[in-house]
Amino acid sequence: MLNNVLNEVIGLGDYFFSIEAASIQFKQPDGNFRFINLKKGHSTEEFNAFCEALNFEYDARVKGQVFGTIWFTDGTWVERGRENSLVCWEPHSKPEISVDSL
Question: What is the four-CA torsion angle of 28, 41, 21, 4, rounded to 10 degrees?
């Protein structure tokens, strides 16, 4: 089964339009890694180049091919992980600090 990384990222919904930075790695069939990064403060051209670089397919049956982190402007982020043996983008948010716990 082939998956497209760009389609997965677009599948994050409205968050796609609030990507602040990203660091994604792809283990190619020859064992070499391909690094796809988007720096904080990126331009529109850099964002478009990032999207073009993500527009590739990989074999979803092979574990550990695509991993990384995408940060959003609201302080949340997603990390590529596994849930119930399915590969997915796991959402994270900064925990609230309770005054009572200080």
Answer: -50
**CB neighbour list of residue 51: distance below 8 Å, 6 or more residues apart:** 6, 9
Query: Can you tell me whether residue 97 is helix, strand or coil?
Result: coil
Which among 32, 7, 8 has a CA at the least distance from the CA of 86? 8
pLDDT of residue 51: 97
Q: Which stretches within 5-73 are classed as H helix?
A: 5-10, 44-54
Q: What is the pTM of this model?
A: 0.85
Query: 65 with 56: CB under 8 angstroms?
Result: no
Whole-angstrom Cα distance, residue 31 to residue 79?
A: 22
